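Note to self: keep these together.
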Amino acid sequence: MVGAVRSIGSRCSAAVATAALLFAPAREAHAAPPSDPPATGPAYRVNLAYDLPAVAVAGVVSTSWLLRGSLAPPHCAPVCEREDVPAFDRWAAGRWEPGWRTASDIGIAAMLVGAGATLFVAESPRNAAVDAIVVGESVLFANTLAIVAMMGARRPRPLAYGDAAPIEERTNGNASLSFTSGHTAGAAAAATATFVTLRRLDFRYASWIALGVGALGASFVGGARILAGDHFPSDVAAGAVVGVASGVFFPALHERTGTRVASAGNGLTLSGTF
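Structure:
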Protein backbone atom coordinates (compact mmCIF):
# COMPACT_ATOMS: atom_id res chain seq x y z
CA MET A 1 0.00 0.00 0.00
CA VAL A 2 2.79 2.36 0.98
CA GLY A 3 4.63 1.51 -2.26
CA ALA A 4 1.55 2.33 -4.30
CA VAL A 5 1.18 5.72 -2.63
CA ARG A 6 4.85 6.51 -3.28
CA SER A 7 4.43 5.50 -6.92
CA ILE A 8 1.41 7.79 -7.34
CA GLY A 9 3.29 10.64 -5.64
CA SER A 10 6.25 10.23 -7.93
CA ARG A 11 4.01 10.29 -10.99
CA CYS A 12 2.26 13.47 -9.76
CA SER A 13 5.59 15.21 -9.17
CA ALA A 14 6.75 14.27 -12.65
CA ALA A 15 3.51 15.60 -14.15
CA VAL A 16 3.83 18.92 -12.32
CA ALA A 17 7.44 19.32 -13.43
CA THR A 18 6.51 18.55 -17.03
CA ALA A 19 3.67 21.09 -16.95
CA ALA A 20 6.00 23.73 -15.55
CA LEU A 21 8.46 23.16 -18.37
CA LEU A 22 5.69 23.34 -20.98
CA PHE A 23 4.00 26.50 -19.71
CA ALA A 24 7.04 28.48 -18.63
CA PRO A 25 8.07 29.35 -22.23
CA ALA A 26 4.47 30.30 -23.04
CA ARG A 27 4.39 32.75 -20.14
CA GLU A 28 7.72 34.20 -21.23
CA ALA A 29 6.57 34.48 -24.84
CA HIS A 30 3.45 36.39 -23.80
CA ALA A 31 5.35 38.76 -21.54
CA ALA A 32 4.95 42.44 -22.42
CA PRO A 33 7.80 43.60 -24.66
CA PRO A 34 10.07 46.28 -23.21
CA SER A 35 9.14 49.82 -24.10
CA ASP A 36 11.06 51.46 -26.92
CA PRO A 37 13.77 53.86 -25.89
CA PRO A 38 13.35 57.45 -27.01
CA ALA A 39 14.10 58.38 -30.61
CA THR A 40 17.15 60.47 -31.37
CA GLY A 41 17.94 62.78 -34.23
CA PRO A 42 15.85 65.53 -35.85
CA ALA A 43 12.21 65.09 -36.71
CA TYR A 44 12.85 65.40 -40.44
CA ARG A 45 15.23 64.35 -43.16
CA VAL A 46 16.59 67.05 -45.45
CA ASN A 47 17.95 66.07 -48.85
CA LEU A 48 19.89 68.99 -50.29
CA ALA A 49 19.66 67.54 -53.79
CA TYR A 50 15.92 68.20 -53.67
CA ASP A 51 15.55 70.94 -51.09
CA LEU A 52 18.06 73.42 -52.50
CA PRO A 53 16.52 73.57 -56.01
CA ALA A 54 13.01 73.79 -54.55
CA VAL A 55 13.98 76.62 -52.21
CA ALA A 56 15.82 78.39 -55.04
CA VAL A 57 12.75 78.30 -57.31
CA ALA A 58 10.43 79.48 -54.52
CA GLY A 59 12.86 82.24 -53.63
CA VAL A 60 13.11 83.48 -57.20
CA VAL A 61 9.33 83.48 -57.61
CA SER A 62 8.95 85.33 -54.32
CA THR A 63 11.26 88.10 -55.49
CA SER A 64 8.51 89.19 -57.86
CA TRP A 65 7.08 90.86 -54.77
CA LEU A 66 9.85 93.43 -55.04
CA LEU A 67 8.39 94.57 -58.37
CA ARG A 68 4.94 95.35 -56.98
CA GLY A 69 5.52 99.09 -57.16
CA SER A 70 5.95 98.89 -60.93
CA LEU A 71 2.65 97.09 -61.47
CA ALA A 72 -0.38 98.84 -62.90
CA PRO A 73 -2.70 100.41 -60.29
CA PRO A 74 -6.09 98.87 -59.51
CA HIS A 75 -8.44 98.91 -62.48
CA CYS A 76 -10.87 101.09 -60.53
CA ALA A 77 -8.35 103.60 -59.12
CA PRO A 78 -8.34 106.18 -57.69
CA VAL A 79 -11.55 105.27 -55.82
CA CYS A 80 -13.23 101.90 -56.30
CA GLU A 81 -16.94 101.27 -55.82
CA ARG A 82 -17.90 99.56 -52.55
CA GLU A 83 -20.84 97.90 -54.30
CA ASP A 84 -18.37 95.80 -56.30
CA VAL A 85 -17.21 94.06 -53.12
CA PRO A 86 -19.05 90.90 -52.01
CA ALA A 87 -21.39 91.51 -49.08
CA PHE A 88 -19.35 89.42 -46.65
CA ASP A 89 -16.28 91.60 -47.29
CA ARG A 90 -17.94 94.96 -47.79
CA TRP A 91 -17.63 96.12 -44.19
CA ALA A 92 -13.84 96.22 -44.58
CA ALA A 93 -13.87 98.28 -47.79
CA GLY A 94 -12.37 101.73 -47.48
CA ARG A 95 -10.35 101.06 -44.31
CA TRP A 96 -6.95 102.71 -43.89
CA GLU A 97 -5.04 102.52 -40.62
CA PRO A 98 -1.30 102.20 -41.27
CA GLY A 99 -0.54 101.60 -37.61
CA TRP A 100 -2.09 98.14 -37.92
CA ARG A 101 0.15 97.44 -40.90
CA THR A 102 3.17 97.99 -38.66
CA ALA A 103 1.59 95.80 -36.00
CA SER A 104 1.12 92.97 -38.50
CA ASP A 105 4.76 93.23 -39.57
CA ILE A 106 5.88 92.97 -35.96
CA GLY A 107 3.47 90.09 -35.38
CA ILE A 108 4.73 87.94 -38.24
CA ALA A 109 8.35 88.65 -37.30
CA ALA A 110 7.65 87.60 -33.70
CA MET A 111 6.00 84.38 -34.86
CA LEU A 112 8.94 83.42 -37.07
CA VAL A 113 11.46 84.10 -34.32
CA GLY A 114 9.28 82.27 -31.81
CA ALA A 115 8.99 79.20 -34.02
CA GLY A 116 12.76 78.98 -34.41
CA ALA A 117 13.41 79.59 -30.72
CA THR A 118 10.94 76.85 -29.78
CA LEU A 119 12.83 74.29 -31.84
CA PHE A 120 16.20 75.27 -30.39
CA VAL A 121 14.80 74.96 -26.86
CA ALA A 122 13.26 71.56 -27.59
CA GLU A 123 16.25 70.01 -29.40
CA SER A 124 19.99 70.10 -29.70
CA PRO A 125 21.25 72.92 -31.93
CA ARG A 126 22.16 70.54 -34.75
CA ASN A 127 18.79 68.77 -34.78
CA ALA A 128 16.92 72.06 -34.38
CA ALA A 129 18.76 73.51 -37.37
CA VAL A 130 17.59 70.62 -39.57
CA ASP A 131 13.99 70.89 -38.41
CA ALA A 132 14.06 74.68 -38.73
CA ILE A 133 14.88 74.24 -42.42
CA VAL A 134 11.65 72.30 -42.94
CA VAL A 135 9.60 74.80 -40.95
CA GLY A 136 11.23 77.58 -42.96
CA GLU A 137 10.34 75.84 -46.21
CA SER A 138 6.72 75.65 -45.08
CA VAL A 139 6.67 79.40 -44.51
CA LEU A 140 8.54 80.18 -47.73
CA PHE A 141 6.25 78.12 -49.96
CA ALA A 142 3.13 79.45 -48.23
CA ASN A 143 4.26 82.99 -49.02
CA THR A 144 5.23 82.01 -52.55
CA LEU A 145 1.77 80.59 -53.22
CA ALA A 146 0.21 83.73 -51.76
CA ILE A 147 2.33 85.95 -54.00
CA VAL A 148 1.41 83.91 -57.09
CA ALA A 149 -2.27 84.27 -56.17
CA MET A 150 -1.88 88.03 -55.66
CA MET A 151 -0.19 88.51 -59.02
CA GLY A 152 -2.85 86.42 -60.73
CA ALA A 153 -5.98 87.78 -59.06
CA ARG A 154 -4.97 91.49 -58.92
CA ARG A 155 -7.81 92.21 -56.51
CA PRO A 156 -7.84 95.82 -55.23
CA ARG A 157 -7.04 96.20 -51.56
CA PRO A 158 -9.71 97.55 -49.18
CA LEU A 159 -7.89 100.89 -48.96
CA ALA A 160 -8.68 101.44 -52.66
CA TYR A 161 -12.42 101.59 -51.91
CA GLY A 162 -12.37 104.98 -50.21
CA ASP A 163 -10.45 108.21 -49.95
CA ALA A 164 -9.00 107.77 -46.44
CA ALA A 165 -5.67 106.49 -47.79
CA PRO A 166 -3.34 108.90 -49.60
CA ILE A 167 -3.86 108.89 -53.34
CA GLU A 168 -0.32 107.57 -53.93
CA GLU A 169 -1.29 104.50 -51.90
CA ARG A 170 -4.49 104.00 -53.88
CA THR A 171 -2.87 104.38 -57.30
CA ASN A 172 0.18 102.24 -56.58
CA GLY A 173 0.53 98.74 -58.04
CA ASN A 174 0.69 97.35 -54.52
CA ALA A 175 -2.92 98.46 -54.03
CA SER A 176 -4.05 95.73 -56.43
CA LEU A 177 -2.56 92.78 -54.47
CA SER A 178 -5.24 91.92 -51.95
CA PHE A 179 -5.90 88.21 -52.57
CA THR A 180 -4.44 86.35 -50.67
CA SER A 181 -2.87 87.52 -47.41
CA GLY A 182 0.81 86.55 -47.45
CA HIS A 183 1.29 87.64 -43.83
CA THR A 184 -1.48 85.32 -42.70
CA ALA A 185 -0.22 82.46 -44.85
CA GLY A 186 3.27 82.73 -43.37
CA ALA A 187 1.99 83.00 -39.80
CA ALA A 188 -0.33 80.02 -40.18
CA ALA A 189 2.42 77.95 -41.81
CA ALA A 190 4.85 78.72 -38.98
CA ALA A 191 2.30 77.83 -36.31
CA THR A 192 1.20 74.61 -38.01
CA ALA A 193 4.67 73.35 -38.91
CA THR A 194 5.95 74.02 -35.38
CA PHE A 195 3.02 72.08 -33.93
CA VAL A 196 3.59 69.14 -36.26
CA THR A 197 7.31 69.13 -35.47
CA LEU A 198 6.78 69.07 -31.72
CA ARG A 199 4.28 66.24 -32.12
CA ARG A 200 6.84 64.22 -34.07
CA LEU A 201 9.35 64.85 -31.29
CA ASP A 202 6.76 63.54 -28.80
CA PHE A 203 6.30 66.86 -26.98
CA ARG A 204 2.58 66.23 -26.71
CA TYR A 205 1.52 68.90 -24.24
CA ALA A 206 4.04 71.46 -25.44
CA SER A 207 2.84 70.96 -29.02
CA TRP A 208 -0.73 71.92 -28.12
CA ILE A 209 0.48 74.95 -26.19
CA ALA A 210 2.56 75.99 -29.21
CA LEU A 211 -0.46 75.50 -31.47
CA GLY A 212 -2.65 77.63 -29.22
CA VAL A 213 -0.12 80.44 -29.06
CA GLY A 214 0.52 80.15 -32.80
CA ALA A 215 -3.19 80.28 -33.61
CA LEU A 216 -3.59 83.42 -31.51
CA GLY A 217 -0.57 84.97 -33.22
CA ALA A 218 -1.81 84.12 -36.71
CA SER A 219 -5.26 85.49 -35.83
CA PHE A 220 -3.70 88.72 -34.63
CA VAL A 221 -1.66 89.05 -37.81
CA GLY A 222 -4.68 88.37 -40.02
CA GLY A 223 -6.89 90.75 -38.04
CA ALA A 224 -4.26 93.48 -38.20
CA ARG A 225 -4.08 93.13 -41.99
CA ILE A 226 -7.83 93.67 -42.20
CA LEU A 227 -7.79 96.66 -39.85
CA ALA A 228 -4.90 98.19 -41.80
CA GLY A 229 -6.95 98.15 -45.00
CA ASP A 230 -4.56 95.77 -46.74
CA HIS A 231 -6.81 92.70 -46.99
CA PHE A 232 -10.43 91.69 -46.93
CA PRO A 233 -11.57 88.95 -44.50
CA SER A 234 -11.80 86.45 -47.36
CA ASP A 235 -8.17 87.21 -48.28
CA VAL A 236 -7.11 86.43 -44.72
CA ALA A 237 -9.17 83.23 -44.65
CA ALA A 238 -7.59 82.08 -47.92
CA GLY A 239 -4.13 82.86 -46.57
CA ALA A 240 -4.84 80.81 -43.46
CA VAL A 241 -5.86 77.82 -45.56
CA VAL A 242 -2.69 78.08 -47.65
CA GLY A 243 -0.56 78.39 -44.52
CA VAL A 244 -2.09 75.43 -42.69
CA ALA A 245 -1.85 73.25 -45.79
CA SER A 246 1.80 74.17 -46.28
CA GLY A 247 2.53 73.59 -42.60
CA VAL A 248 1.18 70.06 -42.87
CA PHE A 249 2.44 69.16 -46.35
CA PHE A 250 6.13 70.00 -46.09
CA PRO A 251 6.74 68.26 -42.76
CA ALA A 252 5.01 65.18 -44.17
CA LEU A 253 7.19 65.43 -47.29
CA HIS A 254 10.32 65.30 -45.11
CA GLU A 255 9.19 62.51 -42.82
CA ARG A 256 12.10 60.32 -41.82
CA THR A 257 12.84 57.04 -40.06
CA GLY A 258 14.68 57.74 -36.86
CA THR A 259 17.28 55.88 -34.84
CA ARG A 260 16.50 54.35 -31.49
CA VAL A 261 19.43 54.05 -29.15
CA ALA A 262 19.65 51.83 -26.09
CA SER A 263 22.47 51.11 -23.72
CA ALA A 264 23.27 47.54 -22.75
CA GLY A 265 24.62 48.72 -19.42
CA ASN A 266 28.24 47.75 -20.07
CA GLY A 267 29.23 50.51 -22.46
CA LEU A 268 27.72 48.76 -25.48
CA THR A 269 25.25 50.80 -27.53
CA LEU A 270 22.60 49.18 -29.67
CA SER A 271 20.83 51.06 -32.44
CA GLY A 272 18.11 50.32 -34.92
CA THR A 273 15.65 52.02 -37.23
CA PHE A 274 11.94 52.44 -36.87
